[in-house]
């Protein structure tokens, strides 16, 4: 085991521990410190010097020993030292009884002969205050309000040895706020209370009291809004500051007088026509009153008075809205009851009558102030027509046309009755509608219209309306004529009557249809010797067409929906008259004539070819009219040849025609104009070669070849 250590010194700085210093022992790895108090002891293992034994009792005398330790064991205890632990720290109880003082108290400490307490601002400003006392309480005064202080206290024994200290932070309570101001919102019946912030205050409480009623508002800012105040009331406002130390004294109360309440028991009387008397009850805290009278046309007048009644002028037919307000230095009272008073309505003005038709008139007028209902009466003819409505217009129907009426408009008010002295106005209704009796055609585009006149001093207007446009005619009598109506058109014909009183409703419409138009263009083309094609342009209004070719030798006709037609059985070389009838859907017909038409001359018959000695060909035919000139055409693979004889001859010669070829031969009349006729019959001939220069002409018919 190692050697026994020797204690150099032992001392206590804390009430629960003793610190020991000794000389190091060679070979020792640890040391055991022992503090013994009677039969109890506390041991602590440490590595080296110094070492501290903790867990001790304050103000207690201990025997301290040290033993060295290594792997071989423990040494003998060192000679002991007697050491007493220092006094325990006093446990403080601190509060701020006022904004400039802090009271400190504590319980008695065992073995303590006295106590030392110091106080300093926590922010380091100012000087430290220190007091020594044998009591267990003391008070620091003349401190800064709302300021955080640090307090330190310790006890000492009879030898003057200080014990553990105890530290505590305490804030002084705040000072009362200053510069308290009250801003009153008369419209919302609430007040905003403001003040200068107080040092160290965390929250504020505003108290608003009136008699037994108390309202509070808590805030951490420097202002607070107090709602729900009562009108015609006086309040006293004070502010108290708070922090964790307590509260300040409340500020001196500030008086707040609210706005007066709205006047009640308002009455309105029309003491004489054109004069209104408004009266009301007196209001607490009301210094004066203002009465506003607004008419329903937007005009407003007012009256200021310190009394409880006012006089106003009024007019007929107006509704007046009356409100009374009380005032004081705080402002205007809330809006009370708004009363209305309606005077007797005036007679309607700006009377106007607009005729919708011959038996209906719409009456309008300017609105009358205060009128709830209007009655319009029309007296004339054999009866009275009336209507009632809340609008400023009325439609009187079923009036007799072309009749004078006496029209009067009365205004009614539920509060004041009827305006019975209104003057009538005289108007006349529009003319009666004419009745068309007959429509007759006086020409291709001339229509006469007749009607039954049923008005005096009226102008009648007849209108033909259709897709082609409008046509009019006028007359003061019972008929007029529509001129230049287009063909192939459909119209609706109606009539109206006009007079200074207005225009009648139109009569019932009568349908009118003009005959279809003749086609502008007509073309005839001969297709074959006995068939001719006719085509024409569209005729407006026409549905079908009948075309006719007529001559002393006969007639050709066709009826079609198309704009063309093939006519057969045409005689050649004949003059025809050409006519066309355009027929509408309803059967109206227009007869159209055009320039005459001549069919082509007849084709010759008996066409034959003969061989001439000089390598030529003679073409023969039979003619039906010696006044017609003919032409012969031969077409072959070795060439085309033609010849035309003199008038009256029925043959012609073609010289130097090549043999050994097949020719198509056509003999046709020669026309003065236009192309050659292509519908005459064609014949095919074969010209053969015999020896060096003699040949034969062979006719090739439908089934055999003929030698000629």
TrEMBL record:
Limits of the Fibronectin type-III domain: 1-88, 89-175, 176-261, 262-346, 430-517
SUPFAM superfamilies from the UniProt entry: Fibronectin type III
SMART domains: FN3
Pfam families associated with the record: fn3
Superkingdom assignment: Eukaryota
Stretches assigned to coiled coil: none
InterPro entries linked: FN3_dom (IPR003961), FN3_sf (IPR036116), Ig-like_fold (IPR013783)
CDD domains named in the record: FN3
Family annotation (PROSITE patterns): FN3
Transmembrane segments: none
Designated name of the protein: FNDC7 protein
């Amino acid at each position: 085991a190692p050697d026994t250590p020797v204690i150099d010194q032992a001392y206590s700085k804390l009430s629960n521990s003793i610190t020991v210093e000794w000389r190091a022992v060679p070979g020792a790895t640890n040391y055991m410190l022992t503090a013994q108090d009677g039969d109890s002891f506390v041991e602590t293992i440490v590595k080296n010097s110094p070492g501290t034994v903790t867990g001790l009792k304050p103000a207690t005398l201990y025997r301290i020993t040290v033993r060295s330790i290594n792997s071989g064991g423990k040494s003998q205890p060192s000679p002991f030292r007697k050491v007493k632990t220092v006094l325990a720290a006093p446990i403080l109880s601190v509060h701020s009884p006022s904004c400039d003082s802090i009271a400190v108290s504590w319980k008695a400490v065992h073995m303590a002969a006295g106590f030392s307490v110091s106080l300093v601002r926590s922010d380091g400003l100012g000087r430290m205050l220190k007091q020594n006392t044998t009591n267990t309480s003391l008070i620091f005064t003349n401190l800064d309000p709302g300021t955080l202080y640090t307090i330190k206290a310790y006890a000492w024994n009879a030898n003057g040895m200080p014990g553990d200290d105890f530290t505590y932070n305490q804030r002084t309570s705040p000072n009362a706020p200053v510069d308290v101001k009250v801003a009153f919102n008369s419209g919302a019946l609430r007040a905003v209370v403001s003040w200068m912030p107080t040092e160290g205050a965390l929250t504020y409480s505003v108290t608003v009291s009136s008699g037994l009623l108390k309202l509070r508002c808590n805030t951490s800012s420097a202002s607070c809004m107090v709602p729900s105040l009562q009108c015609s009331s006086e309040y006293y406002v004070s502010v108290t500051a708070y922090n964790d130390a307590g509260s300040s004294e409340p500020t001196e109360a500030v008086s707040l007088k609210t706005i007066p309440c709205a006047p009640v028991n308002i009455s309105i009387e029309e003491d004489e026509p054109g004069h209104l008397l408004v009266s009301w009850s007196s209001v607490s805290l009301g210094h004066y009153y203002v009465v506003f009278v607004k008419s329903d046309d937007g005009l407003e007048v007012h009256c200021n008075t310190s009394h409880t009644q006012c006089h106003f002028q009024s007019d007929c037919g107006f509704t007046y809205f009356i409100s009374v307000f009380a005032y004081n230095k705080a402002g205007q009272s809330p809006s009370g009851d708004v009363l209305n008073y309606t005077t007797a309505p005036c007679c309607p003005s700006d009377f106007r009558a607009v005729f919708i038709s011959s038996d209906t008139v719409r009456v309008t007028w300017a609105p009358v102030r205060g009128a709830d209902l209007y009655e319009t009466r029309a007296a004339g003819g054999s009866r009275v027509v009336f209507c009632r409505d809340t609008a400023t217009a009325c439609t009187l129907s079923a009036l007799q046309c072309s009749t004078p009426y006496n029209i009067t408009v009365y205004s009614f008010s539920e509060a004041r009755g009827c305006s019975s002295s209104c003057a009538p106005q005289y108007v006349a209704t529009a003319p009666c509608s004419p009745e068309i009796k007959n429509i007759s055609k006086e020409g291709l585009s001339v229509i006469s219209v007749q009607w039954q006149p049923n008005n005096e001093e009226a102008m009648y207007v007849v209108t033909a309306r259709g897709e082609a446009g409008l046509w009019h005619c006028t007359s003061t009598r019972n008929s007029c004529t529509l001129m230049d109506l287009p063909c192939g058109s459909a119209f609706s014909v109606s009539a109206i009557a006009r007079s200074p009183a207005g225009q009648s409703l139109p009569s019932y419409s009568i349908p009118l249809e003009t005959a279809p138009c003749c086609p502008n263009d007509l073309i005839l083309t001969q297709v074959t010797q006995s068939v001719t094609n006719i085509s024409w342009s569209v005729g407006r209004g026409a549905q079908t067409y009948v075309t006719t070719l007529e001559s002393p030798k006969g007639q050709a006709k066709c009826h079609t929906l198309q704009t063309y037609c093939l006519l057969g059985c045409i005689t050649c070389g004949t003059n025809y008259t050409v006519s066309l009838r355009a027929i509408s859907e309803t059967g109206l017909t227009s007869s159209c004539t055009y320039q005459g038409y001549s069919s082509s001359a007849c084709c010759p018959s008996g066409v034959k070819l003969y061989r001439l000695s000089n390598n030529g060909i003679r073409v023969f035919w039979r003619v039906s009219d010696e006044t017609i000139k003919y032409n012969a055409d031969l077409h072959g693979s070795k060439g085309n040849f033609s010849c035309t004889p003199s008038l009256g001859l029925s043959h012609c010669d073609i010289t130097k025609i090549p043999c050994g070829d097949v020719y198509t031969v056509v003999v046709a009349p020669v026309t003065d104009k236009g192309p050659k006729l292509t519908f005459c019959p064609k014949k095919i001939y074969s010209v053969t070669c015999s020896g060096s220069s003699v040949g034969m002409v062979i006719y090739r018919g439908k089934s055999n070849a003929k030698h000629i």
